[in-house]
Amino acid sequence: MSDRLDAGSGSLLGRLRDRLEGPNTIGGSAVFWVGFAVAVAALIAYPQTTDPYTVIQSSRYLALAFLALSLCFIWGYAGVLSFGQVAFFGVAAYAFGVIGINLSSATGVVAATVGAVVAGTLAAALLGYFMFYGGVRDTYVTIMTLVVALVLNTFMAQTAGSEWAVGEAQLGGFNGMTNIPSLTLGLGETGLVLEGNLFYYALLFTLLATYLGLRVLLNSSFGMTMVAVREDEARTATFGYNVPFVKLVVFTIGGALAAVGGVFYASWGNYIDPSVFGIAFAALPVVWVSVGGRESLLGAIGATLAIERMRTGLSSGIGPIGSEWALVIVGGLLLGVILYLPAGVVPTLDDLVDELRTRRTERSQSTTTTEESPE
Amino acid sequence: MSAPEDINVRQKPAVAATGGGRSTMLATKQLTKNFGGLTAVDSVDFSVAEGEIRCLIGPNGAGKSTLLELITGQLDPSDGDIYFDGEDLTGLDTHKRIDTGISVKFQSPHVYENLTVEENLRVPLQRTDRDVERVLAETLDRIALAEKAETGASELSHGEKQRLEIGMAVTLEPKLMLLDEPVAGMSVDETDDVADLIRSLHDDGMTFVVVEHDMEFVRRISEQVTVLNQGKIFRQGPIEEIEADEDVRRIYLGENA
Q: Is B6-255 in CATH node 3.40.50.300?
């Protein structure tokens, strides 16, 4: 608690920390923010220390981190376990492809970015409206979101024929959609194309801004409402909260986060295929968030980066372990965490730090008393 | 808000259960709830006047809790209407009924176990336009949990949880408060605390409907008692009359008399 003394002191920094910190997010001490700044600095310096190929690989992990944040936000804080966040990710990726291919100018790509995020967000709002106002709850939400993703998977997989085209964009069926433009900033025919290190930095700063924005949101009164809904829906309604509406807003924001990830993902590989709607991919966000910690945005991001890095490492096999073991190992990790660290890695670490600190304070207090006592 | 009533009311001659000349705050008309073949609430005309503390008693399964759940909209009635302050509540969502000025505390404690006492109070409070920090301090004081503001709700005793829940409901400044067994499972001291809390809120003008089994407690807080039996209103009147009524003793009080 002593670390927080300067928070709320009226200084700009104090006011900022007041908005960023609260019971709903992990990490509020000065030590935390120093560590956070060091980690961000390391991520900024990272491209200078490694080869371009690794930077491109890392960009993929950062794009997926949005998907993790999306699930962490709705599941960890509002108790809505969606197994189909990939649906909004994929809808946005396809929408980005369709609009971007048809309007290939810089303005067109910017329009594609906005249009794709809107498409993914609207898809979430629509599904959320029918689920939450239709009284669908708990595991049925999980099942229904997964089914939506799988239906999209089946549908997109059969769009191979040339009749499945939107303007110049061929949906491509199982083989996917190719020639998706890279993210571009600017208006007119040409703009600043975000590739290589630029793409990495664009992603990193968007992710950083999103993380801090979500922290502010979660520590606001809306965040408190989300937690109340997660803890006890019926009770929260008896305080006058419109619970279906709260869940719809949360689910829509979650859809928007997933959609941002989808846009980055599609422009990362200039390619998207129906496997983004498949069950193997749909399971990954659940694994990342479970391992990192449902109630930790940072845990979700960290676990995504770590697990995806590990999967890349395993894809070429390590010694006798072939690439086919990658998903088995990820599955084993999920089981291990559920059995031994049910809250996830980061919340468990946070508890541990808290406990050590309390113990140290107690010890220092007891030494003070011993010194003071005449014996 | 009506003037504090306190003990004078109880010394008045027996009046109609609606509480004499005071205006009706809550009224149900022919309210009915069927669960399959069972009629839990059967054509009930129940009304409460502004400023009352009305106790609802009756044997287990009499339909007391169901009646409260119909009033708050947790359950939809099979038939009949509910009026509050002249407004027809029937068919409204729970959250809209709360906004008309009703608060409720359910039978089993329903605090947010994973939040602290203070956070629990903030959840209802942040919706109102009241001065959050001031009301927070007042409420913590009123429910005697100021020293446990930072304590996790899961670590509270049963009695403390019940007080916290009443405190949460009170922060909304309801006109009508529905309490389902507020002292069930409490020690004598804890029961006294809750009785004092209810009387002091009543002095501030709050109207109560309290479902309770503990007749000692009912005697302490209530003026008018409604007896439910098998989903119907069996008797209604001042506590002394109800306790003296042979039929009521037979169906209900007989168990503990």
A: yes
CB contact under 8 A, B94 and A225: no
Residues 6+ apart with CB under 8 A from A185: A106, A110, A191, A192, A194
Q: Where are the domains of chain B?
A: 6-255
| CA pair distance A182, A177, nearest whole angstrom | 14
Q: How many CB atoms lie within 10 A of CB A360?
A: 10
pLDDT at A314: 81
Q: What residues 201-230 of chain A have any CB closer than 8 A to a CB of chain B?
A: 221, 224-225, 227-228
Which of A133, A235, A238, A243 best tests the B interface by mutation, with the highest count of B CBs <10 A?
A238
Hey, is the C-beta of A23 within 8 angstroms of any chain B C-beta? yes
Helix (H, G, I), strand (E, B) or coil at A311: helix
Q: Who contacts A249 (Cβ-Cβ below 8 Å, separation ≥6)?
A: none
**According to the model, what pLDDT value does residue A360 have?**
86
In the predicted model, is pLDDT for residue A12 greater than 90? no
Q: Which residue of A has its CA nearest to B114?
A: A231
Relative orientation angle of helices A279-292 and A345-372, to the nearest 10 degrees? 0
Q: In 10 A of CB B3, how many CB atoms? A: 8
pLDDT tens digits, one per residue of B97-110: 999 999 999 887 78
Of the given ranges (A304-308, B121-125, B247-251), which has the lowest mean pLDDT?
Answer: B247-251
User: What confidence tens digit (pLDDT) does each residue in A249-299 have?
Assistant: 999 999 999 999 999 999 999 999 999 999 999 999 999 999 999 999 999
A238 touches chain B (CB under 8 A): yes
Contact A235 B127 (CB under 8 A): no
Query: What is the residue extent of each domain of chain A?
Result: 1-49, 54-281
Q: What is the total residue count of chain B?
A: 257
Q: Which sign, positive or negative, has the C-alpha torsion A44, A45, A51, A57?
A: negative
pLDDT band at B216 (very low <50, low <70, confident <90, very high): confident
Of A221, A227, A242, the CB nearest to B95: A242
Please name the member of A23, A240, A241 whose beta carbon is closest to the beta carbon of B119. Answer: A23
